[in-house]
Amino acid sequence: MTEFDETALWLFVTVVVWQLFEFYNDSSEADSSLGFDDELLVTDLVARSNYNYMDVITALFSVIFSANFSGLIPYAQTATSQMVFALILSLSTMLTIWAHAIYDNKLAMLNHFLPSGSPLVITPFIILIELVSNLSRVISLAVRLFANMTSGHALLKILASFGLGALTLAGI
Hints:
Number of helices: 5
Helix content: 55-70%
Structural class: mainly alpha
Order of helices and strands: HHHHH
Low-confidence stretches: none
Number of domains: 1
Number of strands: 0
Distance between the termini: 47 Å
Mean pLDDT: 76
Largest sheet: none
């Protein structure tokens, strides 16, 4: 049986506060709390001819920053220290990149799976290897993000305990 832990509590509180804000906000825009239309955002992100990923990077930075900032609440666990959160971020990043590649390049995007000049005999194996390579990028990105966040949190706790120990030894 799954237990209702601290992370689930803060996630529940965040969703409830957001829903209450959405319910009691009397603005006339489509998504009143954020001020944008989801469909317009997705078509704008995917349909750009000169795509530079700055919107995606800014959105990812905002999500990671706000998740880390919510970890400053006393007795709250940071969402970015969860492997599932890192996996969702990496999956959404890779899906955005793949969706743009498919939209922009159509069937030419499939040329990525078969390098030019490869022998016809080993073509199925090369395609399978390239497919596994692309799918493993999602897991690799998630593990790296998770490891970096967790090591950052551990480093901050170690430095804080050293600082507290030094202050205690100094008699302050």
